[in-house]
Amino acid sequence: MGSRSKTDLAYIAGFLDGDGSLMLQVKLRSDTSRGVRFMATLCLYQDTRHEEPLLWIRKVLGIGYISHRKDGMTELRVNGFASIQEVLVKLRPFIRFKIVQADALLHACALLKLKKISELCEQELRTLVDLVFVIRNSNYKSNATLSKEVLLNRLGLTP
């Protein structure tokens, strides 16, 4: 992670609280034994006309990538279990409004960075499914259509 002070981390956590999202997504994959893959994402959003804070945040964190959307928004995305965990551990003391999502995503990343999905036991898979829905239900908006029952079935678990 890049150079940062507590003030910088507090600012970034505040930005995440206001203009960011934490996601634990389930991507359907036919090329895996379980038929799914988990993807952790931390995303910060800003109108492209005012993208400078995102560039600064990326520099401070030393991680992530910037993308420009067609709707005039710019995103700073951080993906990967180890990367998300590293960032959230630093930001966690300063997060105020997305603490439930942050804690759930930290828990999920701790599980997923150590083992491949095929190596997870039934209880770990059930925990991950629960964490997906903790995060989803704590977020303001979700367009997700995958139900808990369908996800459990895809993972070979009975609801």
UniProtKB/TrEMBL annotation:
- Source domain of life is Bacteria
| Any Pfam family | LAGLIDADG_1
Matching entries from SUPFAM superfamilies are given as:
Homing endonucleases
What are the GO MF terms of this UniProt record? endonuclease activity
Which stretch is the leader sequence?
none
Residue intervals of the Homing endonuclease LAGLIDADG domain = 12-89
Kindly provide the name given to this protein in its UniProt entry. Homing endonuclease LAGLIDADG domain-containing protein
Q: Which organism is it from?
A: Candidatus Kaiserbacteria bacterium RIFOXYD1_FULL_42_15
